[in-house]
# Entry
Amino acid sequence: MSVRMNHNAGRGGHAHRAGFSYIELVTVLAILAIVAAIAAPRMASSMSDRRVDLAARQIASALEFARRSAMTRSTTQAFVWLDEAVPGYTLTGLDDPDRAGEAYVVRFSREEWGLTAESVDLGHDADADRLAIVFDMYGKPDSGGSIVVSIGGHARTISVDDDTGRVTIER
# Structure
């Protein structure tokens, strides 16, 4: 008959439980806290970069929509920047695609977006004192221009070519 020894037995024949000591647990938590502290600023920076990119794409899409709308309807279509204090724009004469019968107006709230219009150079509409680009029935703008938007140190420039009306986004 063979006798087996219990390797987990401590003094007095009691079984020894495997587990983590408080020191090991605190060490792991400290390492996780350090990794989180290193990653958090990078995550915030990445989020700002993504948000400014999304805002720039939305503005560029609206400019392109205004251009195509002018060509499709064989009329003029204006893209009007609302003001520099609260970034936003309107497409005059068009209904909001989400709310029928309401004007097409987009504002980037500071609380939600944190977006700043660093510069807006669209030329001035001849009929009113407003920053606007008016596309003719062929999609040609009355002037070129650019809008520079930023969030948390990340910026994008949305440009409209004055000859073709082509809209581009640059970092």
User: Anything to note?
Assistant: The chain has one domain: 19-170. The chain has one helix and eight strands. The first strand starts at residue 77 and ends at 81.
